[in-house]
Amino acid sequence: MFPSCMSLLPRRAEPRPPRPGQAAVVLNVYDMYWTNWYTAGAGVGVFHSGVQVHGSEWAYGGHPYAFTGVFEITPRDERELGEQFRFRQSVHIGYTDFSEEEVRRLVNELGKQFRGDRHV
Questions:
Q1: Per the record's keyword annotation, is Protease included, yes or no (predicted)?
Q2: Residue 8 placed within a domain
């Protein structure tokens, strides 16, 4: 496979261990089209991402209806996204002190603002 365009980013030190009660937050990156296999090495492509926390992955996508575009999938399960998606890599982005219930409440509130019919 071609090198990831993410390899162009500076390397960070290994993530520190979480404090008690914290949960890891991970960005999962997906190729959206087969053309990325040829273009991602040059740092360009069409990508989708989701944020994984507490064993769930949350993402945003468009549809023609006036309700939330925020959705939950099984982490790194490209099949749930559709046949044109391919999982590329995960990037550890930090930790959260929010509980699973608090994350779900926050995602629900964000979903009111990020409707599917407003996806650009």
A1: yes
A2: no
Strand partners, 58: 51, 72
Contact 62, 116 (CB under 8 A): yes
Give 58-71 pLDDT, tens digit per residue: 999 989 888 899 99
3-state helix, strand, coil in the chain (%, to 5): 25, 30, 40
Domain count, the chain: 1
| Rounded CA separation 93/102 (Å) | 19
* Radius of gyration over every alpha carbon of the chain, rounded to an integer in angstroms: 16
Vertex 18 angle, CA 13 and 4, to 5°: 40
| Structural domain contains residue 17 | no
Q: Is residue 9 part of a domain?
A: no
Decide if 13 is inside a domain. no
pTM of the model: 0.80
AA letter at 23: A
Q: How many CB atoms lie within 10 A of CB 21?
A: 10
